[in-house]
Amino acid sequence: NSIIGEKYRWPHTIPYVLEDSLEMNAKGVILNAFERYRLKTCIDFKPWNGEANYISVFKGSGCWSSVGNQHVGRQELSIGANCDRIATIQHEFLHALGFWHEQSRSDRDDYVSIIWDRIQLGREHNFNTYDDQTSDSLNVPYDYTSVMHYSKTAFQNGTQPTIVTKISDFMDVIGQRMDFSDYDLLKLNRLYNCSSSLTFMDSCNFELENVCGMIQSSGDNADWKRLSQVPSGPESDHSNMGQCKGSGFFMHFDSSSVNVGDTAVLESRMLYPKRGFQCLQFYLYNSGSINDQLNIYVREYSADNVNGTLTLVKEIKDIPIGSWQLYYVTLKVTNKFRVVFGGVRGGVTSLGGLSIDDINLSETQCPHHIWRIRNFTQFIGSPNGTLYSPPFYSSKGYAFQIFLNLTHLTNAGIYFHLISGANDDQLQWPCPWQQATMTLLDQNPDIRQRMSNQRSVTTDPFMTTENGDYFWDKPSKVGEVAFFPNGTEFRRGKGYGTSAFITHARLKSRDFIKGDDVYILLTVEDISHLNSTQLLPTPTTPKPNISDVCTNFKCENDGICIDRDGKAECRCPSGEDWWYMGEKCEKRGSTRDTIVIAASSTAAVFAFMLIVTLVSVYCTRKRYRAKTSSNTADMTLENRHAF
Amino acid sequence: KGQDTNVDGGLDQDIFDINEDLGLDLFEGDIKLDWTQDR
Lengths: 643, 39
Fold this sequence. Notes:
The complex is a heterodimer of chains A (about 650) and B (about 40).
Chain A: E1 2-3, E2 13-18, H1 24-40, E3 44-47, E4 54-58, E5 63-65, E6 74-79, H2 86-97, E7 112-114, E8 135-136, E9 163-165, H3 182-191, E10 200-204, E11 215-216, E12 225-227, E13 250-253, E14 263-267, E15 278-286, E16 293-300, E17 309-316, E18 324-331, E19 337-344, E20 354-362, E21 369-373, E22 386-388, E23 392-393, E24 399-405, E25 411-419, E26 434-440, E27 453-458, H4 475-478, E28 480-483, E29 489-492, E30 496-503, H5 504-507, E31 518-526, H6 546-551, E32 560-564, E33 567-571, E34 578-581, E35 587-590, H7 591-642
Helix pairs in contact in A: 1-2
Chain B: E1 5-6, H1 15-21, H2 35-38
């Protein structure tokens, strides 16, 4: 629920500074959190360039923020130790954007019970509710799934929950720190009047007959058909996995009914890029032959070629038979374009064909690698639940592996390992500032509704182990011998990650497991550039910034200097019956002073009026007497003259 | 295995736990109020 008052709103593009004090990993995670805002809301972020107000993210003590735009110039947001989780950063930025916690809304008691005697003494005030004159729930229902909700253990004095949900199924849902909930997004988008986002382009699960405006090409040999099942497979779509009778559609190219080399081409509607790079993702099912393939093209339009230029981006071959498989394809398009899916019949006998479903297109970076874990449920809580990913290479050439530990009774752990690789002799050691981002994919058909669970770790070249080795040194030097399933020997460095990646309860929720498949998305990127200080505005910036204006203007008595139309101005502190005032908050006032002043003023006015009255009476009487005396004298003279 | 290093000491600490361990007593656990809101 949001703070009431337009003055608390930020512009849609928020200026920010990442201060030097931040940990390297935190800097990378903050930038990833910004990407989530750009995908799902109309909020964007840009490096501060002298704007009057900006958010300064620094490593303070703890994780905290103010609520709303405070118009104080540099507004602090702390991402301290252990706060470098993407959803924690999303949470703090939601505060900065003007949101309070979910359970403080006025109708809270209809949905959760607060167990007051389980709350630490003196912390009860953290469970206050605020009426609808203070906060606005924006006409959105109470949200157990909000990233802004307390967890059930918040401020507990023992081990029992302090918050009990009225619907028991939500007990382990409250306090999720994965991603925005649907209602978080609805509220944020309502508060900021968002109608679109910067990076989302399209999502299609083929449930509607218009197939999202996709068109059949005329220059091919066959068409893609919208179906809900195919005898040779798939038995159901991927969106619903057959759970909804009468719905659940996908597009199918029947390669068994065409000749070798024949194609079926399906083109998306026209799309208009803003950033110049895109990530296409979709699920693909092969029931034809292992030789069937799917070609991904873009048809890009320009002033020179109004019919569009068709460019092959990727050939997808060796598509596994008999299951839905996720694919990512990176595009780099700057003009308006269409995405083109071209199914091709291979040279071997086909019994079915290719099917596609749950397409998403966004102007974001694709993950570098995908680790698909099949038949996943059997590993949860099992002694066999120690899983190593296949080896992967980062863009810089470092070889790595992921370890997923599912053996614990309640939590799943995840760890990043450097391993010996082919490029080791050409690489820098200890490995400097490579950030590994590990994401458990929520396989919701719509990318905007996914609440994927993500953690990042960064290789610090100065980090050492207990025996004095560099933690991220060459695995062939500091690692231990290990073997791939095919028997090949290699060396594996120590793992770095968390044993509390996600609880098993949450792992089983949403669409993390779909068709008994789980996907771990992996990106390892060089973030060395974040080690340097963010470029700040130069002194030639036309508008003076807050620090310039306030540098030589100090407010007294804890007053806060702000930039108001380029002039320094003090905001003075006050209490219930006292305040500071004056240009620099140098004068103190209080209610008592006011009473004294009012009483004194009244007395003074009364005295003054009394004096005026007395003087007036005195003068009037004196004048009257004089006049009376004068008149008597005249009369006497007149009488003398008459007689 | 046993040689993996936990970035968070193996503790699944929420925002409020982190701040509490640091002895912070912020409004609702993680909100810094300015003086006008405090008032």
